[in-house]
Amino acid sequence: MSEDKNQSSSDKLENSSFITKFTEVSVKVGNWVYLRSLRDAFAVILPVFIIAGLGVLLNNTVFTWIFHGDTLTKVQVFGNAISNGTLNVAGLLVAPMIGYALAKNKGFNDPIAASAMSLACLLIMMPGNISLGTVASGGAKMATVTGGISYLNAGTQGMFGGIIVGLLATGIFIKLSGYKSLQIHLGDNVPPAVSSSFSVLLPALILMSIFAIVAALLSGFFNTDLINLIKTWIQEPLRGFNTNIVGFCVIYTVANFLFTLGIHQTVISGTLMDPLVLINMNANMTAYAHSHSFAHIPNIITTSFVSSYTLIGGSGSTISLIIAILIFSKVKSSRQVASLSLAPGIFNINEPMIFGYPIVFNLPMMIPFVLFPTIGSIIGYAATAAGWVRRTVILVPWTTPPLIGPYLSTAGDWRAPVLQLFIIILGVFLYLPFMRISERVAKVQAEQQNA
Question: How far apart are CA 51 and CA 82, in angstroms?
């Protein structure tokens, strides 16, 4: 009888006019060639992000339990090397994948060439001079190096640049390649691979010249480059906000929204929030160390506050989505992704969920992913301000599992994990309707493709 009622309520939810209209809009948006190409590109490099999560997990949990001192430093080279080949070159990976996917979805006959052009154009837009830190006898110094590429620009911070360049370069390249006057034909006796290369030679020359001119103008007249331009336009307008609850929620809302577009949320939160909340964390730890009392702890929003109430299980607090899928979803593929994501999600690593479910470029899932961290932050802030839970006074590793983290960070306040559990359960029911919409959208899109 209970199952019949649950099935009935589920049917009513799926057949409601809101969900029907939302599904129609989501299907139209999801079928847009540029958005579809972005999803396809990220699907190709999904294994890269899963392996990156494995490296981070081993470096920050398993290795720290087993090794110490110099031995730990040497062993952690393993995880650092994985990061260098994955997250630290994410921008370089995404640009050619977008070029290939967009060219293929547009029916272009040489998607490999489009992929190469996207990567070439992204490198053209990279800064020619980079600043590196050096350690000398007089202390740390900064040196400007010519002819190098930094992981900072090529990694997650450069992903937005990779997306923009990948889309623009491929679109322009396909357009130029469509003009017969720009195609060079060497005759039928030439091998196809050689003939294909020469047929796109002039379009490639024009394309890279356009990007080189833009790079020269940015450098010569504005003393900047694409990566710094993005940082200036996206990050600097938010720099006036500090760690009050309004600014905090705005910054994390924007950061999580960017993550739904494939741009890691640390591009915003890492620059604008992490130093500030760490300062607050240190102030709390100092006050607690001197008094061993919670009467004069100054700050509510700290580094541990973020991991306890804002990003539970990673960006978007996706641990709630994993639970919702495992309990309520009947879609095999969704349950497989959730099962795969559960173990890393317990340690707050959720790239498999974000890129595998996916949440990136998934319109229905973008809504709870962006809103839920703000809801959790407000609840955590209100409960802490009211004195229902202690303020965080211990800096715990960000990979500390849920329930354990808030208990340790509040120096053993049992109410903190109870509050976090309440937020997680609330998130399950917040994610649930959007999860069902997303699965319905995927079903409709599959039926349209197979028709």
Answer: 7
* Chain segment 96-155, per-residue pLDDT in tens: 999 999 999 999 988 999 999 999 999 999 887 777 666 555 555 667 777 778 877 887
Token pair of 104, please? 């293929």
| Beta carbons of 410 and 309 less than 8 angstroms apart | no
Task: Assess whether 205 and 244 both reside in one domain.
Answer: no
- 187, burial (CB in 10 Å: exposed 0-12, middle 13-18, buried 19+): exposed
Sequence-separated (6 or more) residues with CB below 8 Å from residue 87 = 49, 52, 155, 156, 264
Please tell me the number of Cα atoms within 13 Å of 409 on its side-chain side: 32
Domain count of the fold of the chain? 2
Q: Return the pLDDT at 172.
A: 95
Q: At what angle do helices 159-177 and 111-125 cross, to 10 degrees?
A: 130
> 122: closest CA among 199, 196, 211?
211
| Residue 272 contacts residue 254 (beta carbons within 8 Å) | no
Residues 223 and 252 in one domain: no
Return the closest-CA partner of residue 243 out of 301, 326, 193, 309: 301
Task: With respect to residue 5, please indicate whether it lies within any of the assigned structural domains.
Answer: no
Domain residue limits at 131? 90-233
> Does 45 map to a domain?
no
CA distance 283 to 273: 15
In 3D space, the residue among 314, 289, 284, 451 whose CA is nearest the CA of residue 384 turns out to be: 284
What is d(CA 99, CA 33) in angstroms, rounded to the nearest whole number? 12
Q: Are residues 254 and 117 in the same domain?
A: no
Task: Judge if 126 and 172 occupy the same domain.
Answer: yes
Last residue within a domain, chosen from 178, 198, 233: 233
Q: What helix, strand, coil percent values describe the chain, rounded to 5? A: 75, 5, 25
Model's pTM, two decimal places?
Answer: 0.62
Side chain identity at residue 291, one-letter code = S
CA–CA separation, 208 and 121 (whole Å):
6
Residue 134 pairs in a beta bridge with 141
Are residues 347 and 220 part of one domain?
no
User: Do the Cβ atoms of 416 and 407 come closer than 8 Å?
Assistant: yes
Nearest CA-CA partner of 316 in 267, 235, 255, 406? 255
